[in-house]
Amino acid sequence: MTPRDVDWNQVYELSKIHSLSGAVYTAVRKLPVAQRPPRETFNRFASAFYATVLRAEKQSALIENILEKLNEKKIPHLLIKGAVLRAFYPVPEMRTLGDIDLMIHEEDWFRTDATLRGAGYVLKGKSDGEWKYFKNGMEIEVHSKIRNEYIGYRVGCNDCFNNMWEYAAPLNGSFTYRWEKNFQLIYLISHTAKHLYGRGCGLRMLADIAVVLRHDGDRLRFDDVFQELEKIHLDVFARSLFALCKRCFGVPDAVPCADMPDARCDEAMEYLLVGGTFGFNREITVNLVRREYGNTDRVTKACFIALWHKIFPSWKDMRILYPRLARYACLMPLAWMARGIRCLLFKREKTFTILEGLVHPSDEAKKAYVLLEKLGLE
Q1: In a 10 Å sphere around its CB, with 0-12 CB exposed, 13-18 middle and 19+ buried, how is residue 366 labelled?
Q2: CB atoms within 10 A of CB 171
Q3: What phi, psi does 225 have (nearest 5°)?
Q4: Residue 86 and residue 78: Cα distance in Å, rounded?
Q5: CA 79 to the chain's CA centroid
Q6: For the chain, which has fewer Cβ within 10 Å, the N-terminal or C-terminal residue?
Q7: 3-state secondary structure of 78
Q8: CA-to-CA distance for 233 and 322, rounded, in angstroms?
Q9: How far apart are CA 111 and CA 144, in angstroms?
Q10: How far apart are the first and last CA of the chain?
Q11: Order of strands, edge to edge, in the sheet holding 77-79?
């Protein structure tokens, strides 16, 4: 396919749902004028690029401010995900951030809260081990634990990350910490698995792993990495991810990839492309039903289980919405009623769309379950 044959409107829409429009512009602007997208589409890419740069500059200033304030108070903190990974990208500003993620010790919560509030950050929500702040229209998530609680039917990641601070080291004697390379890769793989098993994930998460492999691939201790991944049953999934990274972005020869047939690669890439950055563009009922196929191979039973869990979420899920349930589990029936009323009053259309999808399911959920099983997520 030559640039003349490309449907540039489709490329733009795909890049938009994957939060990559600005990054794609850095490539299309290098094309000869005759091979570039039509002017209107090209200008949309350009606008996305400049908007991405502007937002990245604001986020960078916010990150510097947060780190400065926490260092002044001698509060140990650890940046994770995009705030760290963007430095590995050829154009760092093109790695978009939905929010800024920060880890702290749980015992430092009160000092952290006082420090951030004193610097003008507004606390908007909190749940078990997670606090959300806003400033200048941007969201900052402060965590005291990693919540990859449950991925698939065999995978449990809690134990792997309980000792995450043992793998972190301070930068230049400051109170700002970074994970060592191998542990960071293990976390990214588990985080991708969590999203893929949940609502799905898109190309940006795959790109994150690819840039780490390209940046550190020759220095990573893959024997140690896979020893830890085997403990949480993500070793097969990791090799599948690496194979997809190799197919899309290229990775060093030292990276151990699964021997994946082209047909499965194509199927996986189509699944990722449809999903968007965090899978939000995929029909939500597909993911709800897919997660229940591990309990049964009958679509009607899987739909019934998914419907039940949607109407009556577990205590673990409900306590995030209603923190008081952590201490008063007996209030679950009232919480279910309150949630149901809120959905009917404020999310009526979405609620009925989901329920209708569960009552009249498509075959896509079964196909998605089989695909993820082949990739190593069960």
Answers
A1: middle
A2: 12
A3: -60, -50
A4: 15
A5: 15
A6: N
A7: strand
A8: 32
A9: 13
A10: 36
A11: 122-127, 130-135, 138-143, 100-104, 77-79, 176-179, 168-170
For residues 281 and 17, give the distance between their C-alpha atoms in angstroms, rounded to a whole number.
Answer: 8
Euclidean distance between CA atoms 133 and 121, whole angstroms: 6
Asked if 115 contacts 73 with a C-beta cutoff of 8 angstroms, the reply is yes
Q: What is the spatial distance between Cα 373 and Cα 371, in angstroms, rounded to a whole number?
A: 5
Q: pLDDT (tens digit, 9 = 90+) per residue, 142-154?
A: 999 887 555 554 5
Helices assigned H by DSSP within the chain = 8-17, 21-28, 39-72, 82-85, 109-118, 158-161, 181-197, 203-216, 222-231, 235-248, 262-275, 284-290, 299-311, 315-321, 332-346, 348-359, 364-375
pLDDT at 139: 93
pLDDT > 90 in the chain, percent: 48
Beta bridge pairs of residue 141: 101, 132
Alpha helices per DSSP H over 250-331: 262-275, 284-290, 299-311, 315-321
Helix axis angle, 235-248 to 262-275, nearest 10°: 90
Contacts of residue 213, Cβ cutoff 8 Å, sequence gap at least 6: 185, 220, 242, 245, 251, 252, 255
- The tally of CA atoms less than 13 A away on the side-chain side of residue 121 is 25
pLDDT in tens, 118-150: 999 999 887 778 899 999 889 999 999 887 555
Distance CA 67, CA 277 (A): 27
Per-residue pLDDT at 281 exceeds 50: no
| Structure tokens, 91 | 């154009």
pTM (2 decimals)?
A: 0.81
Distance CA 97, CA 87 (A): 12
- In this structure, are residues 280 and 199 in contact, taking their beta carbons and an 8 Å threshold? yes
Of the candidates 74, 99, 81, the residue with the CA atom closest to the CA atom of residue 176: 74
Instruction: Indicate the pLDDT class of residue 218, thresholds 50, 70 and 90.
Output: confident
Nearest to 67 by CA among 106, 111, 115, 108: 115
3-state secondary structure 4-64: HHCCHHHHHHHHHHCCCHHHHHHHHCCCCHHHCCCHHHHHHHHHHHHHHHHHHHHHHHHHH
